[in-house]
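dumping this here so i dont lose it
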């Protein structure tokens, strides 16, 4: 392997979603040299995922907003590095990008790093959630956005929060309404929160549009209900649904989409205080506040970076972000689950907690019974959070169960299960060792 000459730039932006694109455009238009790395083969992120073919009805949403963002990005003259996966930042301030198109690792030395890698979906474990045919609602939304058509068969959506309504409306728009939409909360039973939502007319208009589409479809919106288990039956999936009085019934479907909220994707990310260079997080990976906040937060991150690099005055919090934080708090209240119970409290023993490694609740319970194993020991010995997703799906749930089993434990320092060191993603040895003659110093 030859001596690596890093690519130099003022700012490296990670993530080509709304926040990253907004940040990169603002930085470049202010005269800084900017590189943007996006792991996928197109910009867009979670909300503005671009269609692989002709745009369909689901792409009408937000199209103008995205055009404005990419116009500014194009004016700024940035050539995005697509299929470049951010692996991490080393202690010398060198950022590693896995260039999946070329099969090599690109080393970048920026003066500042903006991390805008978005959110991840929260899905609560239930018996059967690992079965083929069960996916996340966000995953199904991406299929609709990229492919433009829904998968065949009956689709059941279950979980908590407004995203499931948006998905049901998109399916109805495409002529394939779900067989049912199961919601743990009941916004109709929270009139005070509904009144407070009126302060956010943009959100109200969006929600009204989705709800009108769902109510015009045959899909029942079953509020205050939970999907508690899934099992294979006669080549399909049988979902057990529990209503607010505790009565259960079964619904059959071919595909089940689960969703229990979103949370920042902060796995393996460098913290500012651990680094020699300026590191700023932007958008959903800093705080999951939705698309309106992500754009404002991207621009705010750019202004922060400029201030830090030029030792200018510090930047005040962004009003649009603060407003969306309040709006998300109202939405949280509106969709607060009706039963108020801890959904993980009554998990059957054989429920899979870690889908990558097939680790179960009873295996975790046995480890907890052994005594005072730390979360790190539970991770290493029990392989919770050690699979391909590195805990992105199971870490929160496992930590919640550990905390529930040890009610007296101090909350500080916050328990961590996932690994914080780079590489944030698996990388091949071949890519790490690839000849890097092409790497240049600019
Ligand atoms: C599943 C899902 C569904 C959502 N649906 C809605 C909705 O209906 N309405 C709404 O208002 N909001 C929704 N949100 C939230 C909304 O998507 C976000 O607020 C908005 O997209 C956030 O923009 P962002 O740029 O912060 O992140 P994103 O749009 O998620 O962009 C992050 C980008 O970073 C890239 N990336 C991640 N890791 C790496 C890496 N290691 N290296 C390189 N690139 C990387 C990703 O590929 C992605 O393109 C949803 C979020 C999720 C996760």
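and the seq i came up w/
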């Amino acid at each position: 392997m030859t001596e690596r000459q890093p690519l130099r730039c003022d700012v490296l932006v990670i993530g080509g979603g709304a926040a990253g694109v907004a940040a990169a455009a603002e930085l470049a238009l202010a005269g800084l040299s900017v590189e943007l790395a996006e792991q996928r083969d197109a910009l867009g992120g979670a909300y503005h995922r671009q269609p692989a073919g002709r745009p369909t009805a689901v792409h009408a949403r937000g199209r103008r907003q995205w055009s404005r963002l990419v116009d500014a990005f194009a004016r700024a003259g940035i050539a995005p590095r697509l299929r470049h996966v951010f692996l991490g930042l080393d202690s010398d301030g060198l950022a590693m990008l896995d260039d999946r198109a070329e099969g090599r690792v690109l080393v970048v030395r920026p003066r500042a790093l903006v991390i805008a890698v978005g959110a991840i979906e929260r899905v609560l474990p239930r018996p059967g959630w690992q079965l083929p045919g069960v996916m996340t609602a966000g995953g199904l939304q991406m299929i609709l956005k990229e492919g433009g058509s829904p998968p065949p068969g009956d689709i059941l959506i279950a979980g908590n929060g407004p995203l499931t309504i948006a998905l049901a409306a998109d399916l109805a728009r495409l002529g394939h309404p779900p067989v049912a939409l199961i919601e743990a909360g009941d916004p109709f039973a929270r009139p005070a929160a509904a009144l407070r939502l009126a302060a956010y007319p943009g959100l109200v208009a969006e929600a009204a549009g989705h709800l009108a589409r769902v109510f015009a479809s045959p899909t029942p919106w079953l509020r205050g209900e939970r999907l508690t288990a899934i099992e294979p039956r006669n080549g399909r999936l049988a979902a057990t649904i529990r209503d607010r009085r505790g009565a259960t019934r079964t619904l059959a479907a071919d595909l089940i989409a689960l969703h229990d909220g979103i949370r920042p994707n902060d796995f393996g990310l460098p913290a500012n205080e651990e680094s020699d260079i300026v590191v700023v997080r932007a958008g959903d990976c800093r705080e999951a506040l939705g698309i309106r906040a992500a754009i404002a937060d991207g621009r705010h991150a750019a202004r922060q970076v400029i201030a830090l690099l030029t030792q200018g005055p510090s930047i005040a919090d962004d009003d649009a972000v603060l407003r969306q934080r309040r709006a998300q708090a109202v939405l949280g209240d509106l969709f607060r689950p009706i039963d108020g119970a801890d959904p993980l409290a009554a998990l059957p023993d054989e429920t899979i907690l870690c889908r990558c490694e097939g680790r179960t609740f009873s295996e975790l319970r046995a480890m907890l019974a052994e005594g005072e194993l730390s979360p790190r020991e539970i991770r290493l010995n029990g392989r919770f959070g050690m699979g391909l997703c590195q805990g992105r799906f199971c870490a929160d749930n496992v930590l919640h169960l550990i905390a529930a089993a040890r009610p007296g434990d101090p909350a500080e320092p916050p328990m961590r299960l996932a690994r914080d060191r780079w590489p944030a993603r698996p990388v091949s040895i071949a890519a790490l060792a690839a000849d890097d003659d092409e790497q240049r110093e600019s």
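The pocket of flavin-adenine dinucleotide is lined by residues 14-20, 37-40, 45-47, 85-86, 116-119, 121, 138, 141, 163, 166, 262, 283-285, 290-291, 294, 424-425 (CB under 6 Å).
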